[in-house]
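Hi! If you just cloned this repository, the fastest way to understand the data is to look at a raw example. We've pasted two of them here, unedited. The first protein comes first, obviously.
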Amino acid sequence: MFGCLVAGRLVQTVAQQVAEDKFVFDLPDYQSINHVVVFMLGTVPFPDGMGGSVYFSYPDSSGMPVWQLLGFVTNGKPSAIFKISGLKYGEGSQHPFGTMSITRTPTVAQIGISVELLDNLAQLTPVGNAAVSSVDSFTQFTQKMLDNFYNFASSFAVSQAQMTPNPSEVFIPANVVLKWYENFQRRLSQNPLFWKT
């Protein structure tokens, strides 16, 4: 039903079922892992109204598991990439795995998937820095790029009195660059992916 992928390692497609609705994948040598991908195999969808909460668990200094909610997979969102490198020393959160006896060693972390009602998933809050890709980061990059371009182009601005005639050079009025800049910003705020069309 689920798969787990870490860069540079073989794909895991056989999860250990620890309860009727709970599955785990082992992540050996977890200290060297930055990101993990959790996905549905496409062979068995979630029942209607159900989805899967995805947790990361690592052993604390005493060997006890610390569980942190990364996010969710659903029939509508069958895969997700999570950044786990910054979570290794964070606080644990409530989790559905309770005190299950899951075999583990000090260098092995786990990804846990709990099948739950979508209504319950909507009330859970994942760890803030686990999400990787988002339109917001793209929008932020684009905004910084626009600012940098406008500032760079403006730094060469001269008045007509300061211009020296040169027939081989083409000049673009600064107001044209400003108009393009404002247009691009407006379109980006309306639809961050407008440039794809």
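Ok, and the second one:
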Amino acid sequence: MIKQIGKTPILEKHTASCHCGKVVLELSLPNGVEKPRRCDCSICRRKGAIVASVKLDGIRILQGEESLKLYQFNTHTAKHYFCSHCGIYTHHQRRSAPDEYGYNLGCLDGVNPYELGDVPLMDGVNHPADQQ
């Protein structure tokens, strides 16, 4: 549980937005930021975001739902959302934990995710669901 990143306190109801501001989310973070990580799967390597998780009911779209676009690949289990105007990835429904959203820490208002320091790297290349 991370209750502050840099000088920014993590609020119980924290807003997040894409770069252009058309998409605005409210995240329920009563325990602060949980499970921050990077992933080395094919999409995460390319987007380079540091993500954390909330339960599915932990994200509410305040504005711009019509601007969100869905991207799916491979098994089409995970649902990756990004702003159709500025291209910023905001959140995704997780493949490994479909009852959770991963969200882009860089979208949290006032947060610089690079102030977290070392962030664990998850092995997304060797996903458990791909193992026989």
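That's it. A detail worth noticing about the second one: The radius of gyration is 14 Å.
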